[in-house]
Amino acid sequence: MTNRRQFIQSVGALAGMAALPGGMVKTAFAAGKEPIKIGILHSLSGTMAISETALKNTALMAIDSINAKGGVLGRPVEAVVVDPASNWPLFAEKARQLLTQDKVAAVFGCWTSVSRKSVLPVFEELNGLLYYPVQYEGEELSQNVFYTGAAPNQQAIPATEYLMSKEGGSAKKFVLLGTDYVYPRTTNKILRAFLKSKGVPEASIMEEYTPFGHSDYQTIIAKIKKFSAGAKTCVISTINGDSNVPFYKELGNQGIKATDIPVVAFSVAEQELAGIDTKPLVGHLAAWNYFETIKNPENTAFVKMWKDYVKAKKLKDAPVTDDPMEATWIGIHMWKQAVEKAGSIEVDKVRKGMAGQTFKAPCGFTVKMDETNHHLHKPVFIGEVRADGQFNVVWKTKGPIRAQPWSPFIPGNEGKQKL
Amino acid sequence: MLKFLLGLALCLPLFARAALDPAALMPFAGEDSAAKAEAVTALAGNPDPQVDALFRALSGDSLFFLPDGRVVVFDGERYADAATGTSLASEPESPESVIVNNVVRGALESAVALRGLAAADPAARLAAAGVLKERADPGFLPALEAALDRETDPRVKDALSRTTALLQLASPDKAVRLAAIERLGASRDRNVRAALAPLAEAETDPALKAAFKSALDAIDFRLSVANFFTNVFSGLSLGSILLLAALGLAITFGLMGIINMAHGEMLMLGAYTTYVVQGFFRTHFPDALDWYPLAALPLAFLVAAGVGAVLERTVIRHLYGRPLETLLATWGLSLILIQAVRSIFGPQNVEVANPSWMSGAFEIYGVVLPYNRLVIIGFAFFVLAIVWFVLNRTRMGLYVRGVMQNRPMADAIGVPTARVDMMAFALGSGIAGLGGVALSQIGNVGPELGQAYIIDSFMVVVLGGVGQLAGTVVAALGLGEINKFLEPYAGAVLGKIAVLVLIILFIQKRPSGLFALKGRSADA
Q: What is the pLDDT of residue A357?
């Protein structure tokens, strides 16, 4: 009879969800103070929910913590949460709703590049502010967006340099493996040009794409084995989402260890590892601007706050922190500082206030919003996966590095390097 | 340099048997991974048991260094000096763990293997020789030759002789090189081929050149055979997965004619049952954790069959004979089931680990056969046998076939058709649940699991011919093989498109699939 009960329970849960009034979150504050509304635009259902729900909750946690410290300009911050349901056109619709109906001061959201591209015209038309917290392929610069994730030169290129170094195993052959859409294609275009500039011959680069949700990696791994003969080979993976699990599983079962062919991934972080069996992954690499295992007081506090938050709110998210969550956290705090500097929530004034804004981030460095290019100066870390799903940092940059949203390795970008 | 270090390390124990040279351990207190790797390689030949302790600590992440540069081993309770093995008098202030990256780990593996060649157990020696096959440091050659001389086990001797042959290719002695080339000609390893090819190009001596050529030809032949069988196996594996995903649908859609869009969700329920059973075993029977998939099988069948029976009774039975409404209703049901699972287990994928007997692979003539795929191939045919038996050899199967072929007639002779409908739908759903257990072992388990398989399942059933079990089997295996033979040339994305185009063309030619029903029942 459990089946029927489960079924009834879930139907009840569904009805309950439908009845939620727009997902408003009210916080008690001193009477008479008009709250400042900000929008949260992350998919809470559909394929991207796996990654984006944690960001929504991180944003809510940041807002709680800001309110607990007196809010912004003495006013409480109120989150307006909407669910674009992993549906790219719906992102644009929801963004318009946030800006015109809810009149939010800023929006925090989007994950995939295609969702960002879909909301961009809305933000430009209505002069809104979007804080985008995920590493991406670059080749974009809007005065209405602040990019708090990494540009390719803050993730992909340092990771490749590491693999080519003696420390990283002096790789001579490179497999560029990705899911077939704009981010992996652009990143691999940049990496190919970068490798060529380092004197890697065409024959030593193999580029391979799989459809979204691909789950049978037998042939690709056989191909990688064939390709790897004779020289140290590494795989640079821009496989996105849950295809990573069958990929690493197959790799492990075929007996390829990280010491033979290391895989460096740009889309696998602690939250993604929480859902999978990490035994076959040990020793493989990821490049990010933040890892949970980094030791410093800011990070200890950040990790503890998230763990407590997950417990207190009984969230379904894994109690681990990762890079896009840190980027969300930085974004909201920088927005607060910029609003306070500007003394207003007006978009044009806040934008001016953002330039050169600094924040002591959980990554252990004081990160700075660039004066001109709307990207953060971020440190780069390379971590090896441990058996417990966390990362051992094996390499890091000396300090934050400036983003190059227009990669110098893509032809036609020569004139844009000042940005 | 390495040889010198190795020699030095070999001499060391003569002077100081009980302690390692602290200078040799210095790199472990530093940041430079390449230096650490070199230090490991240098220590490899040192027979001092202290080195074993050091290597164990290094691979177990329990090696630390102190601010004063001393390297210490932590055994879970206390710290001991890595050079001497004596325990520290007091707990050190701030021990920092020695970071081991892939370069160090690789050096460590081969160093440990080199020491393993001295093991008493021939199996351990064979494993060690296997590791050294992959990566042997040129500095190891003297130690390897010595090990080869004293080796008695023929299998270990064979593995070692290949490694030494690879290193001997650089020998100045022509006879040694000739023997090495001949030995390597018996290999089936791409890395050996890659090592030989440039040498063959550069070779000027005609005798050696001929030896190189015949060695390379022999390896190439073996590699192409292995490649062919790898493709056959990959195709069989993909086919068995398609078969498992589609078998349930072959009953609900194939036999009963219900356009069942919620079929994928039955797979998903089976996979989630596996997850729940795994969790239950983890907390209650941690010793028997390896056998949780077996316990999950009957439960997954019951859960999916139960949900299927409920759906049939509450929704689907009202829609018989109205395919469009059935399509919409089952699609709605699938959304409800997805959201229900999402509310209960969360939107994240859940972790289902392979039990140890399904991890890893064995190699036969250069073809790597992963255990999980082998088990799934076997399981697919097991489930197929069950379905065949139930449909063709039991009374219920007879009823099901009878009702599907001529409902009024079956009703007239007293078959309880409504109950048969429910049982048949539950059976199809339960079979899908079994498929879900298998899918959880190779892919992701998340609320959307079913969506990834629904299209493939319909493709298999339609291609095979609606209502034909044999057609489903041939279609699943055929699609798997075609896919895997196309993919190496066309790539994964184009390969998938090419398969779809082939299916469309085929259906144009034969609208009722591979195995069309003949006779009166085809019109029903």
A: 94
Q: What is the pLDDT of residues B461-488, one digit of tens each?
A: 888 887 778 889 999 999 999 988 888 8
> For B372, which of A4, A9, A253 is closest by C-beta distance?
A253
pLDDT at A20 over 50: no
Residues of B in contact with A250 (CB under 8 A): 370
Could you count the other beta carbons within 10 Å of the beta carbon of residue B487? 27
Cβ–Cβ below 8 Å for A254 and B361 = yes
Residue A101 burial class via C-beta count within 10 angstroms: exposed 0-12, middle 13-18, buried 19 and up: exposed
Written as one string, the DSSP assignment of B440-502 is HTTS-BSTTHHHHHHHHHHHHHHHH-TT-HHHHHHHHHHHHHHHHHHHHHHHHHHHHHHHHHH
CA angle, B346 then B350 then B352, to 5°: 160
Spatial CA neighbour of B264 closest among B469, B478, B468, B458 = B458
Q: Which of A148-157, A379-388, B17-26, B203-212 is least confident?
A: B17-26
**What three-state secondary structure class fits A362?**
coil
Tokens of A199: 């004197």
Structure tokens at A90: 């719906």
Which residues in chain B are contacts of A180 at CB distance < 8 A? 493
d(CA A215, nearest CA chain B) in Å:
6
pLDDT of residue A363: 92
> Alpha helix (H) ranges present in A107-181?
113-126, 156-164
User: CA nearest B342 in A: which residue?
Assistant: A45
Could you give the CA distance from residue B122 to residue B79 in angstroms, rounded to a whole number? Answer: 34
Question: Is the Cβ–Cβ distance between A166 and B34 less than 8 Å?
Answer: yes
**Out of A6, A223, A394, whose CB is closest to B488?**
A223
Provide CB contacts within 8 A for B262, sequence distance 6+: B311, B330, B331, B333, B334, B337, B450
Rounded to whole angstroms, the Cα distance separating A58 from A381 reads 22
Cβ neighbours of A252 in B, within 8 Å: 359
User: Which of B33, B370, B493 lies at the smallest CB-CB distance from A209?
Assistant: B493
Alpha-carbon distances, residue A29 vs A26, A35, B116 (angstroms): 9, 9, 69
- What's the whole-number average pLDDT of chain B? 84
Residue of B nearest to A316 (CA): B346
The whole-angstrom distance between B126's CA and the closest CA on chain A is: 17
Six-digit token pair at B406? 């001529």
Among partner residues B190, B234, B306, which is closest to A3 by beta-carbon distance? B306
CB atoms closer than 10 angstroms to residue A327: 30
> From CA A263, how far away is CA A274, in angstroms rounded?
18
Q: Is the ipTM of this complex over 0.85?
A: no
**CB B373 to CB A10 under 8 A?**
no
Task: Kindly state the helix (H) or strand (E) to which residue B216 belongs, with its residue range.
Answer: helix B206-249
State which residue of chain A sits closest to B300, comparing Cα positions. Answer: A3
- State residue B524's pLDDT score: 43
Cite the beta strand spans of A231-273 per DSSP E.
233-238, 263-265
Sign of the Cα pseudo-torsion (A354, A357, A360, A361, in order): positive
**% of chain A surpassing 90 pLDDT:** 60
Would the pLDDT of B522 be above 60?
no
pLDDT tens per residue across span B152-178: 788 888 778 877 887 777 777 878 888
- At A22, which helix (H) or strand (E)? none
Is the Cβ pair A214, B492 closer than 8 Å?
Answer: yes
pLDDT tens profile A123-157: 999 999 999 999 999 989 999 999 999 999 999 99
Predicted TM-score of the model (pTM): 0.80
Tens-digit pLDDT profile for residues B79-137 = 888 888 788 777 777 777 787 888 888 888 888 888 888 777 888 888 887 777 766 67
Check CB contact under 8 Å for A10 and B103: no
